[in-house]
Structures are given as structure tokens and as C-alpha cells.
Design goal:
By secondary structure, this protein is mainly beta. The chain is 10% helix and 35% strand. It has one domain: Roll (SH3 type barrels), CATH 2.30.30. It contains one helix and six strands. The strands form two sheets. The protein has a three-stranded antiparallel β-sheet, with helices on one face. A three-stranded antiparallel β-sheet has the order 3-4-5, covered by helices on one side. The protein is globular.
Length: 86
């Protein structure tokens, strides 16, 4: 996928969480546009730890050509201080 296509999805407002599908079968959920930095040929993705929020547990660099598709995802929201069922 082209870097410009990835960047276009990340810059849409209001932002919709995205799922990146990588050629090797890896999947990354992008909950915030700041979770990714897009370069000319690669992206850096912040991978969340067990709590699912920043600070990120680790950073992963993926070649843009390895992103095979991007889909919007629905992230359950927290209501009244209760977490959604797992």
C-alpha cells in the first residue's frame, strides 16, 4: 500500500479506529491517529500494553508495501465507569 493511502486514512476527521492487516498475518489495531508515524516507505506503530493505552509497550516498523488492507473497527466504549464485556 502507498504511504499516501495510509496517511489519508489516518487523517480523516472525525477519526475512526482502524485495523491494519499485514502480509505476514499480523494485525494492528490503531485506536488513535497518533499511534502511527508514516514515512515515505514505512510506518511505525505503537503497540499498546495490557491496559490497551499509551505509553506503548513497544514500537514496530512495518514497510508500507506489507500493509495489505485497512478496515475501520468499532471500539467498545466505557459507560458509567464500567468496562464492556470481554
Amino acid at each position: 500500500m502507498k504511504a499516501t493511502d495510509i496517511l489519508e486514512d489516518l487523517e480523516k476527521r472525525p477519526f475512526t479506529p482502524l485495523r491494519f492487516f499485514i502480509a505476514d498475518g499480523t494485525v494492528y489495531d490503531i485506536r488513535h491517529p497518533e499511534q502511527c508515524v508514516v514515512g515515505l516507505t514505512s510506518i511505525v506503530v505503537g503497540v499498546a500494553g495490557p491496559a490497551g493505552v499509551a505509553p506503548y509497550e513497544r514500537l514496530v516498523r512495518v514497510g508500507c508495501e506489507h500493509v495489505v488492507r485497512i478496515e475501520p473497527i468499532q471500539i467498545p466504549t466505557v459507560k458509567n465507569g464500567q468496562h464492556p464485556p470481554a
